[in-house]
User: Fold Pectin acetylesterase from Dioscorea zingiberensis.
Amino acid sequence: MATSTAQLLRLWWRRGGRDRVLATSGFAVLVLTLFLTFGSLFHAGPEPAFDGLSEGPVLVDLTLVHDAEKKGAVCLDGSPPGYYLLRGFGSGADRWVVHLEGGGWCDSVKSCSLRARSHLGSSRYFESHIPFEGILNNHPSLNPDFYNWNKVKVRYCDGASMTGNVEDEFQNNTKLFFRGKRVWEAVMRDLLSRGLANAKQALLTGCSAGGLATFIHCDNFRALLPKQTTVKCLPDAGFFIDANDISGKRTLRSFYHDVVHLQDLANDLSKDCISKTEPAQCFFPQEFIKYIRTPLFILNPAYDAWQVQHVLAPSTSDPQRRWQRCRLNIHNCDSKLLEALQGFRTTMLNALSEFQKNRDGGMFINSCFTHCQTHSNLTWHSPTSPRINNRTIAETVGDWYFDRREAKEIDCPYPCNPTCYHLDLSAIWP
Ligand SMILES: *[C@@H]1O[C@H](CO)[C@@H](O)[C@H](O)[C@H]1NC(C)=O
Ligand SMILES: *[C@@H]1O[C@H](CO)[C@@H](O)[C@H](O)[C@H]1NC(C)=O
Ligand SMILES: *[C@@H]1O[C@H](CO)[C@@H](O)[C@H](O)[C@H]1NC(C)=O
Assistant:
């Protein structure tokens, strides 16, 4: 099972060389799936242990939101959306973490159609149960502040970070639904009826494209819950920046432009932002975080491995393949390429400089070559996970959520932090 998933991913990635859309989703899928399959190696049976104290991550069952179909809240292929819910216990029984899955975006009828035939576009391919790790783990030693909360992982099956609301069921004669916003609403409605509506405390989080969805929906999530509920948002690896690539092009900007126009997202993005600049720019968090009123914690590695692949050094901008080894493993970067990486970090920090003054905000911008960091114990909270000022990501997020202390951490530049967990993608794409 693990092998066939890896093979499939490799296939996707290779195709991605020719089709940037698949390339875009490929990496996030990979990171996610690595964690999922890795976790599942340790669990042969599907029987969950709900006492919250057993070793290893529990497996949680899929729930499909069937009545969503009536409202046209469907995945790209028209199938119903879904999520996994693990009930909280003890003092966590009325507290909720909602995590939004990531997995890139699609920007053409062709790439969205391909996606509609995968787990990123159709619930027909969702796993019937998945392990809950990192911020979703139910063991206090691996998840000190949120272990006993209700925890939800929402599957991502539209192509635009849970935005989009196109009535038409056909795009250029191809049956394809752009209904991310309706999916968001249907899933939230379902969760509210299962107890989220009575939450005392809630945290919306998500990784990669789900991190971007967390930025986009943060205030919407706040608005769904009672005034007295504490609501905060933790986008993980969702701070995609509008930066020049190594050839001076804005590769991600033109990609976002195509996504936003294809799926007609203008109505779903920040109104304050749309009134000031063109819609496609409002898909970049740096353009709209200043309008978000709900407290935010921005977690992002400064050398975000996905962004190095697709924003800074996309292969289309590297015909001589000078970045070939470096973009897969930061230890392979010579001093010249490292300089470009440091420039990327500076661009990211500049884009965050205004946010840094936000009194309710938190941040953890570590100098690691990685992507999502909330959904594995290796990065979230363990004796060997990355730290800044000797605090793990889980501890820093907890400090911020519960107002224990100021939690705005910016790491010194690579290679200063010995606690980093750097990805080595060359093992996967030699
Ligand atoms: C942490 O995660 C890794 C990878 O999923 C797993 O091998 C390990 O058993 C986990 N550690 C604990 C204590 O659950
Ligand atoms: C629809 O098809 C036409 C003709 O092939 C093409 O010009 C247009 O770009 C397509 N539209 C989309 C959204 O793919
Ligand atoms: C770092 O924190 C750990 C507990 O998480 C503690 O045992 C250790 O002494 C701390 N190290 C330093 C240098 O403060």
